[in-house]
Amino acid sequence: MSSNNDSNGSRRTFLKGTAALAAGLAIAPGVRLLGVAKAKPDNEAVTSIVRWGMLIDTTKCSECEVCVEACHAENGIKDQGDPATTPQWIRKLMARDSLTGHVVTLPMMCQHCENPPCADVCPTGASFRRADGIVLVDRHICIGCRYCMMACPYKARSFEHINVTDQAPHAPRGKGTVEACTMCVHRVDKDQQPACVDACNERGHGAMVFGDLKDPESEISQELVRYGGTQIRADLGLNTGIRYRGI
Fold first, then answer.
1. Helix axes 195-202, 66-75, angle to 10 degrees
2. 17 confidence band (pLDDT: 50, 70, 90)
3. Which domain holds residue 150?
4. CA–CA separation, 79 vs 83, rounded Å?
5. In terms of C-beta density within 10 A (0-12 exposed, 13-18 middle, 19 or more buried), how is residue 237 classed?
6. Phi and psi torsions of 221, nearest 5°
7. Hey, how many other C-beta atoms are within 10 angstroms of the C-beta on 27?
8. pLDDT in tens, 52-93
9. In Å, how far are 3, 82, 136, 173, 197 from 160, measured between CA atoms?
10. What pLDDT, in 10s, does the model give residues 160-203?
11. Nearest 5°: CA angle at 153, between 151 and 155?
């Protein structure tokens, strides 16, 4: 017969395991690719201690497509032969100053808003913001209504029109659902940078800086203090996680 101490110990072990499982599931119901925040044990959920963000220096950004190519390769996105239907998690734009004629190129992706309009209008909760600032889509409960696409002021979301094959395990995708930049959440949760940032650095441009906006000692925070950064459509009050320099 087991002693009371043995029973209590087993019960505590069971409860700890159950709590850990519940915390993991609470991150994103039905989506297996999501892990936990940087440098946290696997049994702890994402928290708001950090807020992930990116600073893009348009003065260093060239007209190359290396960030787009890296995103496609990392997430299994293939050219469908039609720009209107090929998903674009990140795209390169050209912006011209109407007064001076100065032209800059800049990557445009989900801006990972603190107050995301996409999540506000989603009827199923498929569009949501993690506590660490990353905005995602749970494809398992997305019904393809595309309300989020209409609500996004950055046109940063795509609708998948065809059946998807050879999917990357960390980036489940499917016909009839909406998708967008995940800030390479699967890499971030393993203490790595997004694929676009690594590719830009490897090419020697150094136009993208990724890090914790809440850490005053992080590179991105130091850069923002030193040189500043601009939100696209700051007037909307969305407090975006993506900031730009040189626009």
1. 140
2. very low
3. 4-245
4. 8
5. exposed
6. -65, -40
7. 18
8. 999 999 999 988 999 999 999 999 998 877 777 889 999 999
9. 58, 12, 15, 8, 25
10. 998 888 888 888 888 999 999 999 999 999 999 999 999 999 99
11. 90
- Contact 109/72 with Cβ under 8 angstroms? no
Round to whole Å and give the CA distance between 187 and 35: 9
Domain count, the chain: 1
What tokens were used for 190?
């393993």
pTM: 0.80
CATH number (domain holding residue 224): 3.30.70.20
Please list, in sequence order, all residues whose beta carbon lies within 8 angstroms of the beta carbon of residue 185, skipping any fewer than 6 positions away. Answer: 33, 34, 35, 130, 134, 136
Strand order in the sheet with 208-212: 208-212, 52-57, 242-245
**What are the C-alpha distances in Å from 30 to residues 7, 14, 34, 127, 142?**
33, 23, 10, 13, 11
